[in-house]
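Holo prediction — biotin.
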Amino acid sequence: MKDYLTQDSITRDLATRFIGHRVILYSKTASTMEIARREAIKGAIEGTVVISNEQSAGRGRLGRLWLSPGGCVAVSVILYPDIAFLPSLIMVASLAVVHTILDITGLQPQIKWPNDVMIGGKKVCGVLVESGVRDGNIDYAIIGIGVNVNLEAAALGELSLPATSLSDELGRGVSRLELVRRLLVEMERLYLSAHSSEAVYREWKDSLETLGRRVRARSGDRVYEGIAESVDKDGSLLLRRLDGSLTRILAGDVTLQN
Ligand code: BTN
């Protein structure tokens, strides 16, 4: 299958107002987050996209490494939102990936809190949001998305979560160009809609496979066990502990217990 990304093929007639109007494309770089951060500090226009065919030092959440061999999509998008809007970015990003995968493959992903995109209990995509904040104001925010598209997930080796790819799930390749273009359109649509309604929060909440499940939640060096009861509009997880108390977890990771 021809699976070839160029700046022109990504931007040409893209149905967006600003996301993807400028695309910076690499065949290989350390991390698209790092390039995007430097571009944002230089004042890149909102919606500037940095994409790489491969990353040698991809960044994951909680200081982890993210593996991005050829066949992946590694993309970072520069935004300048109001600080109040920062928590919505993980919802926008993970839902945009869910919609895109469903639209172009028919596969129905779920989200594991806060923003791992899963198919059949295996991780197919990770989302990372980084921001620069000064005096309580946002200088920039960068949404980073890594999708396992055309690769054998088994070749990624031992990971913190079992992994899959779209080609593993379908038994055929998927056009990364179609996926990237669709993803950018969907991100912008959700980003704009999240400014004017709670629909994105509600849909993100409904897409979480975590809710109602017994989980072990890790936040910093603390570990909590309980039932994942709900999520708040700021993205935090509300965990009903075994002693009946409710704990709010702002950032961390969960493991489903059964
Ligand atoms: C996670 O830990 O699940 C988040 C992974 C995020 C990976 C993406 S790939 C594009 C962007 N560049 C990076 O270095 N990381 C993000």
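READOUT: Residues 31-33, 55, 58-61, 64, 66, 68, 74-76, 116, 126-128, 144-146 surround biotin (CB under 6 Å).
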